[in-house]
Amino acid sequence: MVAKMKKETGTEKALKRIAAVLERRFGNSGTEAELGLTGADVFIWEADGAHLIPVTETAHLPLPLLKGVDTSRDTLLENTRRFADGLPANNALLWGARGMGKSSLVKALHAEVNRSRKGVARLALIEIPREDISSLPLLLRRLRKAKRRVVLFCDDLSFDRDDTSYKSLKAALEGGVEGRPANVVFYATSNRRHLMPRDMMENERSTAIIASETVEEKVSLSDRFGLWLGFHNCSQDEYLAMIEAYAQHFQLRLPKEERDARAITWAATRGSRSGRVAWQFIQDLAGELGKKLT
Fold this sequence. Notes:
seven-stranded mixed sheet
């Protein structure tokens, strides 16, 4: 008589789940599959489960479509290529005006660098949410075992009053005992050059016993980034060049004079000119013309 299989209890299932999480957090295995760095080039770090979520389809624009950021584009592209080739590279802070293509540039550069690469030579891009920055040391400890080179990316990074997680970031980037793994570089975007609100820094200066030392601690975080790339509000000519590039790429047939006039009006209603505003205008125009943006 065949013995009946014992049914797993709820407690046993829970223990297995806990064991799996602990293995992901503290396990000593280091193959790409075990680290979760296979099946995709882009991943999202989920701190609660201590695992990487692969993203098989990513939204990014072709690099030539990003206009008005030529200097930053060329600098970051060269830094990223050197890193992908196994050469030393700097952490990068992309700071400045909103909507000027900071995060779009990181994603476009990642795709561009990978165009001619195969296998483990392909660069991995891992996005870490701002609220999970405190888990960065854990993620770096895992990535230290990987063969693939990784760009860690945090979009819209900044710290508010009483937020002490910036200390974890400082130590993880350069100041910790282990140091940043040689196969990892960190890119962040922010509207703030020093990642801290100005009133917070001024308050620290006014209330500290030795004001300069307290402010130095706050500013030293941005010093961990070897590259500071500024993004500033674009001129009307740069804005219209963005519109032109998008219209040609997506084959949006409309007389240039009419298109430019409508694009200028579109920007005026929003009170700003930027890459984001240009893209929003193109989406509206494509919808009107019955064209898909593929």
